[in-house]
Write a structure and sequence with these properties.
It is built from one helix and ten strands; from the N terminus they run ββββββββαββ. By secondary structure, it is mostly beta strands. It has one domain: Immunoglobulin-like (Sandwich). Strand 1 and strand 2 form a beta hairpin. The chain is globular, with a radius of gyration of 15 Å.
């Protein structure tokens, strides 16, 4: 699928071109020298900045789960590389996560408003807390396919945005 790729430069956000970039935005080389303060996960030379948009309150935490490029491990118990949590900020919450190396990954997020570090579900098993996925796939008919959430992180210092949806 072709996606619009944008990068940050001194003049603000600019539309660059259509590319096969899987929804990741490049950051200028000078911003890639060191990870941002507070970057979480096992320390490495590769990191990704994730902005979670449409966060409805500053209550609790935003949990980010990183998955390797393996559809059989996506959204299964103990299938992730790791989970990290950052304090929620109303509107947009930004987090930086270390990645093992450049490659293809998927990110799932949820708004843990009560801070209990568990994803709440209704009695029917449906989400009871806000959630989202890399590339912002449609989730009306159920969970997204792994193919729809894959991010191609070609180098350190890239960023992506995830819109959180509330039930």
């Amino acid at each position: 699928m072709l996606r619009s790729v944008r990068w940050r430069h001194s003049g603000g956000w600019a539309l660059a071109a259509l590319a096969l970039g899987f929804g990741v935005l490049p950051i200028p080389a000078h911003a890639q020298d060191a990870p941002p303060a507070g970057c979480t996960g096992p320390v490495s030379q590769t990191w990704l900045t994730v902005t979670v948009d449409d966060v409805r309150s500053a209550n609790g935490l935003i949990a980010l789960t990183l998955y390797a490029d393996d559809s059989s491990r996506f959204l299964v118990k103990r299938g992730s590389l790791y989970v990290t949590r950052v304090p929620a900020a109303a509107g947009a919450t930004q987090a930086c996560i270390f990645l093992p190396q450049p490659g293809v990954y998927a990110v799932a997020v949820y708004h843990d408003e009560d801070g209990n570090q568990a994803f709440k579900r209704t009695g029917l098993g449906l989400p009871a807390e806000g959630f989202g996925f890399s590339n912002n796939p449609a989730t009306l008919a159920g969970l997204p396919s792994f193919r729809s959430v894959r991010l191609n992180v070609t180098r350190s210092g890239l960023s992506t945005r995830i819109r959180i949806k509330y039930p």
